[in-house]
């Protein structure tokens, strides 16, 4: 099966009457890292919570590895590891006992060698006998991840995993995520950090006001992001673009005083040198120039502002 999660026509309205999700259709590919971006209150946590069986869905259908999350809840849930936004742990227990218990909750046979590997990967092995209460915030977060992985899930949800964590933990976390992906685990993360999505994700989805407004391969988005503009402020206004400049992607401003050249900044050959040479040959002088680049952040902010009423 190509899609590990299939969401069809999913809606959710809370008892308060707030429509948190409006007819979501989304397919997650097996083995990908999918980043869900959206502003506060967009519905990210609601969506994850429904898939994980924590919040009841409204209308629609969600399949996790072919299992319906309502009719076949246990099978669906056993495929999933969830690292929630908030930290909550059994404070008085040791790290080791907590992680072993978590595994047991899913009815899995003990496998101490596997759990040891997780704790080592998360640099928690030395702390295995410590009470969670006595760990630092970053360590507690590592324990949350260890718990989420304890039953060998094939899908891992990370809800804002790096909010408020230090650089080192962030780096460790991404290394671990990459390692998990290599072992075949599908990873879905929500984040406010656009650079994080840029760096980590295979695909990016943007959610706004309960609607998915964009799903795109990251490389495609990066390509759009790679577009740059060079604006030349001319000495003398032009009435029209001179013949011979058609090969360049040029636009003349309405008042004829500016030429805007759009190019692909990631392309080796930007064409700027040719353009300037060609302008020189046509006797077009400029007195100033500016360049600008659209970032994923801008694309994102514009999308999200979009049709906000
Ligand atoms: P954030 O980035 O702030 O975590 P989010 O995208 O995860 O936001 P959700 O937590 O899914 O957003 O919330 C979506 C909307 O649903 C919000 O307007 C929120 O106030 C509302 N909401 C969430 N949980 C409940 C609830 N239990 N009862 C009523 N409304 C809720």
UniProtKB/TrEMBL annotation:
Domain ABC transporter: 5-234
Keywords, comma-separated and alphabetical: ATP-binding, Nucleotide-binding, Transport
Keyword Transport attached: yes
One of the record's GO molecular function terms: ATP binding
UniProt cross-references to InterPro entries, sorted A to Z: AAA+_ATPase, ABC_transporter-like_ATP-bd, ABC_transporter-like_CS, ABC_transporter_ATP-binding, P-loop_NTPase
Matching SUPFAM superfamilies: P-loop containing nucleoside triphosphate hydrolases
Signal peptide: none
Gene3D superfamilies per UniProt: P-loop containing nucleotide triphosphate hydrolases (3.40.50.300)
Pfam families per record: ABC_tran
Protein name as catalogued: ABC transporter ATP-binding protein
């Amino acid at each position: 099966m190509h899609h590990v999660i299939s969401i069809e026509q999913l809606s959710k309205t809370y008892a308060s009457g707030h429509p948190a999700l409006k007819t979501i259709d989304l397919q997650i590919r097996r083995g990908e890292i999918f980043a869900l971006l959206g502003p506060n209150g967009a519905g990210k946590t609601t969506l994850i919570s429904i898939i994980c069986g924590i919040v009841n869905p409204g209308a629609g259908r969600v399949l996790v590895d072919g299992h319906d999350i309502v009719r076949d809840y246990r099978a669906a849930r056993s495929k999933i590891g969830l690292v929630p936004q908030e930290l909550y742990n059994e404070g008085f227990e040791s790290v080791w006992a907590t992680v072993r218990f978590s595994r047991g909750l899913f009815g899995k046979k003990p496998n101490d060698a596997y759990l040891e590997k997780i704790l080592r990967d998360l640099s928690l092995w030395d702390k295995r006998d410590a009470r969670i209460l006595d760990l630092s915030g970053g360590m507690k977060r590592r324990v949350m991840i260890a718990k989420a992985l304890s039953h060998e899930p094939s899908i891992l949800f990370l809800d804002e995993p790096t909010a408020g964590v230090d650089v080192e933990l962030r780096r460790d976390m991404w290394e671990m995520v990459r390692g998990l992906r290599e072992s075949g685990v599908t990873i879905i993360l929500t984040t406010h950090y656009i650079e994080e999505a840029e760096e980590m994700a295979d695909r990016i989805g943007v959610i706004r006001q309960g609607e998915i407004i964009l799903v795109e391969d990251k490389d495609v988005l990066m390509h759009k992001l790679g577009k740059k503009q060079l604006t030349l402020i001319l000495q003398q206004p032009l009435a029209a673009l001179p013949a011979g400049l058609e090969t360049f992607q040029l636009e003349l401003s309405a008042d004829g005083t500016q030429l805007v050249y759009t190019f692909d900044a990631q392309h080796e050959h930007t064409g700027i040198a040719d353009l300037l040479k060609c302008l020189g040959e046509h006797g077009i002088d400029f007195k100033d120039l500016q360049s600008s680049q659209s970032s994923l952040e801008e694309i994102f902010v514009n999308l999200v502002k979009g049709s906000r009423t």
